[in-house]
Design goal:
single chain; about 550 residues; mainly alpha
Length: about 550
């Protein structure tokens, strides 16, 4: 569906003037284009609907064919066709199109018109069709719906109320109506409707809808009882097991939650919801990154899961290196010193880390980096995927970005960083440039690849960039199991050196390196224990800095969305 959803009334008025001129000239196709544009800008403006009715009357066949559905149909044309279908006595088809428009732009009031909210529509549709429409709406919007978008769904909720009034004992209708009410935070209504549906005809889905509604109402014990009854109806629906486990875990009953998820895995070890939930709960239990790595491996090996899951991102959110940068150590945040003499070249004829002075990056390289760099990411594989935007840069540009960090972007993110923590921007440049290096010449086998040699030399020879380079290596281990032994050895060697050094003098970035080690796949237990000790001792000393970074990240994420 093509774009076009702003709600400014003046452009709609201008489009209507052009539509009426085209109508008066008999140019119905042009008139239809302008009416569609007006609907996209002001979907409930009465004058738009009056002009649409004039157009339908002038066409002689209801005007439906003036708004054909094509591969990429303008959203205004979709909505116009929906209204004309309803006027032609085909409201169910019209509702399907309105729901499609809602999925395309949930904040626009596409359905806020009299024919949708009329009690007569509920009588004409029948309970099964009404339930199907409500299910489509629920599938088209998030759960719960963001507050700014809830008003646009009120016409569908009115349709649900009208349908329930006409068909008060139809279990499927009551359940789908409950699901919609819950999404728009009409929780007491959702509970009432779901409970009526279960009383009318007990079923697995009825108990699931009731369980969700009760959970939203904070009635956890009753919600769990309903979900357990759903399992009794259908012991093979493992998604319900995952819901029960998640609910138990959310209320501090982690061991019980794990027992439920193990029951699901015993029935089907590869069921996606159960696998995602199991790894998330295991990570909550012991904090071992191996659970998250196993989940990332599962996601990579099962690209066709039934639906998108957020468990990996939830576990990584706000955690050092798993989901965000750590604060730069004192005296860091300046440009990396590349091209220092005496540290040894990488070989070959290309620009290297230390062989010679590094030129500034190209304008295109700086532009791409500004679009990409951010202090947070969902999880390491997502950061790797995002950095593909730097894949076509040559090595000279990538090294140039490290040696000559671009200015902060003219965005909300850039303004906050420039005003509050410029060093964090440089840290972001380093991290994302090193991630970009992972995409350099990926056809080369890892052991002798340019990308590995450059990152290893950066980690060893350029202190200002060392952590960013190590993070890129750790990210490589997340996305490619074949390099995990190599990367684990590199991280273990670096951590051992830090552990020795802290016995004699403070090491400012010890905590950051420890967290980086804790994010590394396949570390041995002894190294993990060392990392936990270093992280625990140093984090307490830096708690104020950590709090400040978290507060800054919250502001960044809020202002840059």
């Amino acid at each position: 569906m093509a774009e076009g959803t702003d709600d400014r009334a003046l452009p709609a008025t201008e489009e209507l003037i052009l539509a009426r001129r085209a109508l008066d000239s008999g140019e119905l196709t042009h008139a239809a284009e302008h009416v569609a544009a007006a609907l996209a800008r002001a979907p409930t403006l009465p004058e738009v609907h009056e002009t649409l009715a004039r157009l339908a009357a002038a066409s002689g066949d209801g005007g439906i064919d003036l708004f054909p559905l094509q591969h990429h149909t303008f959203v205004g044309a979709v909505v116009a066709r929906a209204h004309l279908l309803a006027a032609a006595g085909r409201p169910a088809e019209g509702l399907d199109l309105l729901v499609a428009a809602t999925a395309h732009a949930p904040g626009a009031d596409w359905a806020g018109v009299p024919w949708v909210t009329s009690p007569e529509l509920a009588e004409r549709l029948g309970p099964e069709q009404a339930a199907r429409v409500l299910m489509q709406v629920c599938a088209a919007v998030p759960d719960p719906v963001a507050p700014p978008n809830r008003a646009a769904l009120s016409p569908y909720l009115t349709l649900a109320r009208n349908a329930v009034t006409v068909h008060p004992e139809h279990a499927l209708l009551l359940g789908t109506a409950s699901a919609l009410a819950r999404r728009v935070e009409e929780v007491p209504l959702a509970v009432r409707w779901a409970a009526r549906g279960v009383r009318a005809a007990p079923s697995k889905m009825g108990e699931v809808w009731l369980g969700y509604a009760l959970r939203s109402a904070g009635r956890t014990r009753e919600a769990l009882a309903a979900l357990r009854r759903a399992v009794e109806h259908d012991p093979d629906d493992l998604a319900v097991y995952a819901d029960i486990a998640g609910t138990l875990a959310d209320h501090g009953r982690l061991e019980e939650a794990l027992r439920w998820i193990e029951r699901a895995l015993a029935r089907n070890p590869s069921f996606d919801c159960a696998v995602h939930t199991a790894h998330r709960l295991r990570f909550q239990r012991d904090g071992a990154v191996r659970h998250l790595v196993a989940l990332a491996d599962f996601v990579r090996d099962h690209p066709d899961d039934s639906h998108e899951h957020g468990d990996l991102a939830e576990c990584c959110r706000g955690r050092p290196w798993l989901g965000q940068v750590t604060p730069a150590p004192p005296a860091s945040g300046t440009a990396a010193t590349l091209g220092r003499p005496g540290t040894g070249p990488l070989g070959g004829s290309e620009p290297t880390v230390a062989a010679r002075p590094t030129s500034p990056p190209s304008a295109e390289a700086a532009r791409r980096l500004r679009q990409l760099a951010h202090p947070a990411w969902p999880h390491p594989p997502a950061a790797y995927d995002a950095a593909v935007g730097l894949a076509t840069l040559d090595l000279a540009d990538l090294l140039g970005l490290l040696a000559h960090p671009p200015e902060t972007p003219q965005t909300a993110l850039g303004r906050v960083l420039a005003g509050q923590d410029p060093a964090l921007w440089v840290r972001c440049v380093q991290v994302w440039t090193c991630l970009g290096l992972l995409h350099h010449r990926t056809d080369e086998p890892w052991p002798d690849s340019t990308r590995r040699r450059v990152l290893v030399e950066l980690a060893h020879e350029v202190p200002e960039v060392a952590e960013a380079a190590l993070f890129a290596l750790v990210t490589a281990a997340w996305v490619d199991p074949s390099v995990r032994t190599d990367v684990a050895a590199l991280v273990t060697e670096r951590l051992a050196a830090v552990a020795t050094a802290v016995r004699h003098h403070p090491v400012p970035n010890a905590a950051s390196l420890a967290h980086l080690a804790l994010a590394t796949p396949d570390l041995d237990p002894e190294t993990i224990a060392t990392a936990r000790t270093l992280a625990g001792v140093t984090v307490r000393k830096r708690r104020g800095v950590t709090r400040a970074l978290r507060a800054l990240l919250r502001r960044l994420l809020r202002r840059s969305v």
